[in-house]
Design a protein that fits this description.
This protein is an all-alpha fold and 252 residues long. Helices cover 54% and strands 0% of the residues. The protein is built from eight helices and no strands. The longest helix is centred in the middle third of the chain and has 29 residues, at 86-114.
């Protein structure tokens, strides 16, 4: 956002460092996608410390490698040069493509071999289509879009929109192949939902709070002001009864 919007100008001394961080985050994100593509094959049980730390360490290593290659290319040290950015091109352009292709193939294999439901294939197809459209808009039609809209926006805007839709399809696919509903869970413990319907209860004693009423010997219900109906409309002559029913003429 800081780079594309021009908040940090390209001539600023911090621009290469922010660009290197961005390149590292992109490479780490695709590495995370690649590793998650093999989670369904149970190389390590999902959620265990082994799988989590393998994911974290792998993403951290790729982030550090990409950051070093990017800043080395921008500053021209360690044998890297912006006149021949081959290493940066491999990690920034080729590596995301490789990770995406492997992820798509692995998930298709997973669906065809382990799942009876074929609906998740639709999510994969839509996600792949959005990803492909995003690349075409960015690399093939960005200048055309920019000139047609008089430089207000370019292909990067539509690229970001299509990538957002592609990420949404990845989540939709994951949600369709998992049985647990972890969308509203907090932390490491899933929320436990319980529906209590006294009409469907097998034993009425399962819900004692439903029986605690005036008809079952419970305490009298309170009206506004702290006075119960039994106290307000007590029988004539009953101690504590303010009014009787039916009303009499001498009660005022």
């Amino acid at each position: 956002m800081f780079l594309d919007s021009g908040i940090i100008p390209t001539a600023n001394v911090t621009y290469p460092w922010f660009a290197a961080v961005y390149a590292g985050l992109v490479a780490a994100a695709y590495t995370c996608l690649l590793i998650n593509g093999f989670v369904g094959f149970q190389f390590a049980e999902d959620g265990t410390p082994l799988s989590l730390w393998f994911l974290r360490i792998s993403c951290l290593i790729i982030f550090g490698l990409q950051f070093f290659l990017a800043i080395g290319t921008f500053k021209q040290f360690a044998g890297l040069s912006y006149t021949k950015p081959i290493a940066l091109w491999i990690m920034y352009i080729l590596w995301p493509l490789v990770c995406t292709v492997i992820y798509i193939i692995s998930q298709l294999v997973l669906v065809f071999r382990t799942l009876e439901d074929r609906w998740p294939i639709g999510d994969i197809i839509f996600g792949t289509a959005f990803f492909a459209i995003a690349q075409v808009l960015l690399f093939a039609f960005s200048v055309t879009i920019c000139d047609a809209i008089k430089h207000y926006i370019d292909g990067l805007f539509f690229f970001t929109l299509c990538m957002l839709l592609s990420v949404m399809m990845v989540y939709k696919y994951w949600d369709s192949i998992t049985k647990e509903d972890l969308e509203f869970s907090v932390g490491s413990k899933a929320a436990v939902w319980e529906v209590k319907d006294p009409l469907l209860a097998a034993n009425p004693s399962d819900y004692p709070e439903e029986d605690a009423s005036n008809y079952h010997g419970g305490g009298p219900a309170s009206l506004v002001g702290g006075v119960s109906g039994q106290q307000l409309y007590g029988a004539h002559g009953q101690k504590g009864g303010y009014r009787g029913y039916p009303p009499t003429d001498n009660r005022y």
